[in-house]
Amino acid sequence: MTRRERTVDVLVVGAGPAGLGAAAGLAASGVRRVEVLERDRDPGGIPRHCHHDGFGTRRTTGGLTGPAYARRCAAAAEAAGATLRTGITATGWAGPRTLDTTGPDGLERITARAVVLATGARERPRSARLVPGTRPAGVYTTGELQQAVHLHHQHIGTRAVIVGDEPVSLAAAETLRTAGVRVVARITGLPPEPCAALRPRDRAPLLTRTTVTALTGRPRLTGVAVRHEDGRTTTLPCDTVVFTGDWIPDHELARRGGVVLDPGTRGPAHDAAYRTGANGVFAVGSLLHGGESAETATAEGRAVTAPVLRHLTTGAWPAGRPALAVTEPLQWVAPNLVGPDGEPLPGRLTLRTGRRLTAPLLVVRQDGAVLHRGRLPRTLRPGSSFRLPAGWLVRADRQGGTVQITVG
Ligand SMILES: Cc1cc2nc3c(=O)[nH]c(=O)nc-3n(C[C@H](O)[C@H](O)[C@H](O)COP(=O)(O)OP(=O)(O)OC[C@H]3O[C@@H](n4cnc5c(N)ncnc54)[C@H](O)[C@@H]3O)c2cc1C
Q1: Is 13 in the pocket of ligand 1 (CB under 6 A)?
Q2: CA pair distance 16, 298, nearest whole angstrom
Q3: pLDDT tens sequence for the chain (408 residues)
């Protein structure tokens, strides 16, 4: 089958909040042919199936449900003049800024002057978490659960266990309640957390320092086997289990294009201007770091406008930038490439920790030299990001080695 070949100015892949924010900003800034590809039937990304409110800030949107937020993002992009094409999947690369696509009208090959990747993130499913046991029905991530309940109106079950204690597990509990499913327990491998994000109304017990060892039952789930910190094992009878949080960027397309991935976030390595390691390819939103808010994704989409415009005008692209990296218990930092000389630095960096830290001393070094040493006067929790002012980056050697952030 032959491919229809076309050109556009900017091709955005993914019509979630980040891609739509980028499309709205670019089209409103006068870029003529801004096209957004979305593999789903409708634009909006994950918020489309999040029927709870909490999308956007009170200041920006008044606090919307996910579907209302999704509609608002799509309407803004279209009103600005961007073209939204749904049911179209970008499947691979035929050149540095040329993407192959497939959709109901057949195959296409689209070449752009700049590409913005905004393919989002997903929660790691049971298989990727290497949970042993049977392969029964009744096993979900929060995203799959919300699609089953809100988009496909499927029957879920009666008794559920939630695995994970990130803020998104709150959405899982809410969706289960909507579907008439009782939450019998919540499980986390982490220690007890005084300000845990999840305080469900049904007061299901939170089992801390507990790990899932197996799923039982066939063809339907009958229980979740767990091991407690003291070595005791129990099986929690249930017909539904929801694995929450533990985000993995949807990086497959980026990877196929040879875009270098950051080992911490597992999304594209990028600088403060959202430039990846591939000339003319930008990345925004959850693809860069899963588990942030939709408003952050929209803001990043908007913020990529100026760097893309600059690239369309000058064609310039930096090479050989030092990476920013973290050591445990820190999990990742973004942005994770230092920008070139003469460019504005990020005002602050976003980081995550794998365990609770109280007033940690953070030390930043490059090639043995200390660029920054300072205590963050707060408690940092796993599952939530924190920010680190980055003024010290002016002292980084743009030709030097990796800039390493450690807990002192
Ligand atoms: C269960 C759940 C509850 C949440 N609750 C909240 C909340 O209350 N408040 C809040 O602010 N945030 C919440 N979030 C987070 C929020 O949804 C994300 O921050 C936001 O959706 C990220 O936007 P994005 O555009 O980066 O990615 P996404 O929304 O994931 O959008 C990416 C889009 O790219 C498309 N795509 C991927 N690959 C391709 C391809 N190859 N070709 C074409 N299209 C492609 C996908 O279909 C998708 O539509 C929640 C997330 C989840 C999972």
Answers
A1: yes
A2: 8
A3: 789 999 999 999 999 999 999 999 999 999 999 999 999 999 999 999 888 888 987 666 668 999 999 999 999 999 999 999 999 999 999 999 999 999 999 999 999 999 999 999 999 999 889 899 989 999 999 999 999 999 899 999 999 999 998 888 988 999 999 999 999 999 998 888 754 544 555 568 889 999 999 999 999 999 999 999 999 999 999 999 999 988 999 999 999 999 999 999 999 999 999 999 999 999 999 999 988 999 999 999 999 999 999 999 999 999 888 999 999 999 999 999 998 877 777 889 999 999 899 999 999 999 999 999 999 999 998 888 999 999 999 999 999 999 999 998
| Rounded Cα gap, residues 300 and 22, in angstroms | 8
CB 388 within 8 A of CB 376: yes
**Residue identifier of the C-alpha nearest atom 41 of ligand 1:** 90
39 lines ligand 1 (CB under 6 A): yes
Report CA(47)–ligand 1 centroid distance (Å). Answer: 6
Name the residue with the closest Cα to ligand 1, atom 35: 14
For ligand 1, mutation pick of 36, 42, 46, 99 (most atoms within 8 Å of CB): 46
Q: What is the DSSP string of 155-200?
A: ---SEEEEE--STHHHHHHHHHHHTTPEEEEEE-SSPP-TT-S---
